[in-house]
Write a structure and sequence with these properties.
Elements lengths: L1 H48 L5 H13 L1 H15 L2 H11 L2 H34 L2
Helix pairs in contact: 1-3, 1-4, 1-5
Amino acid sequence: MKKILLVCVFMMALSVNAQEESTQFKSQTIEFIKLTGAGAAFDGAIAQIGYGVPDEKKEAYTKEALATLDGLYAKIADLYMEEFTQSEISELVSFYHTDLGKKLAEKQLGLTQKAMTFGQSWGMEVSQIAQKYN
């Protein structure tokens, strides 16, 4: 009987420890996502989407829209947690706390937008080439 009780206590301790590690991993992953500049991008999107909201309702809109970010961060964190280990996320968080990491986070959105423009132009160029062969 004592052995069964000890095994049960041991299994519960393992379960609690695993849950704590998972919660820590998710929190650290969300921190990483925020450090990459995603927070600023989401804030900009909220402002842009709410552009037409009347000024007297803007504060309530912004508060409600910001409240949706926790769920979004959790979903994005799940994606990253499927691709990266906790150790890798920890390294990424450390990198984004460096001066170079902060610079990358600051520049990333603008660089991505410009790169998308280049990609669209390239896609049109390749489409014209493909049309020559149709």
